[in-house]
Amino acid sequence: MPVELITHPLVQHKISILRDKNTGPKDFRDLVEEISTLMAYEATRNLPLEDTLIETPLGQCSSRIISGKKLGLVPILRAGLGMVNGILKLIPAAKVGHLGIYRDHHTLKPVEYYAKLPEDLQERHLFVLDPMLATAGSSTAAIDYIKKRGGKGITLICLIASQNGIDAVTKSHPDIPIFVGAIDKTLNQKGYIVPGLGDAGDRLFGTR
Description:
- The protein is of the alpha/beta class.
- It has a single domain (3-205), classed as 3-Layer(aba) Sandwich (Rossmann fold), CATH 3.40.50.
- It has helices at 9-19, 25-43, 81-88, 137-148, 163-172, 200-205; strands at residues 3-5, 49-56, 59-66, 70-77, 95-96, 98-103, 110-116, 124-129, 132-133, 153-162, 178-184, 186-187, 193-194.
- Strands 1, 4, 5, 6, 7, 8, 9, 10 and 11 form a 9-stranded mixed beta sheet that branches.
- Helix 1 packs antiparallel against helix 2 (25-43) and helix 2 crosses helix 3 (81-88).
C-alpha cells in the first residue's frame, strides 16, 4: 500500500512548531490533537459511502452516509494517547482500544505490557496511532497483535516517521496504508528519529 505524506499547509506548519524544543507540554498536547484531527480527515477520505433517504424539515432528499465497517482507534501507549481526542472529534462513535508496548532501551525491541481491544474488532476498520514511527518495532508489534486476533482493516497514522520505520512496516505488512505528516531519514544510536522532536511521550506529559 502507498505511504501518504500529508502536505497540507496547516499540518506542516503545526509540525514545525511541534518539533521546536521550546514548545511546552500544554502547547505540545494541543498541537498533537490538532494535527491528529487534520490527519484523520485525510486518512478517512476513502471510506465507502452508501445512498440513503433523509427527511429534512422541508421534504425528502437522497443523501450519502458512511457504509461498511464501523471504526475504531488503537493508540499505542503512552504517546498514542495524545492523538485520540483529536480523531474522536471527527469520529465520535469510534471505539477506542489500547495497546501498551514499550521499546527496550538496550535491545530496541518492543515489549508488550497491556492490551485491551474492542470485542468486535473483526467488524471494524482500526486506526493504529503512533506519533513517532522510528524503528517501527512498536507499530509492527501492534499490527501483528491485531491481525492475530482477527483484525483485517487497519490503517497506521503517525505524525513523524523515519524512512527506516516506513520500510520496516511495509516489509512486514505490505497491506497496511500509512499516513504520515513528515518523513525524516535518520535514526540515532538510541533509535530516535533525527531531527524528529525528541520523546513524544515525555513531551506530551512533561516527564523525562
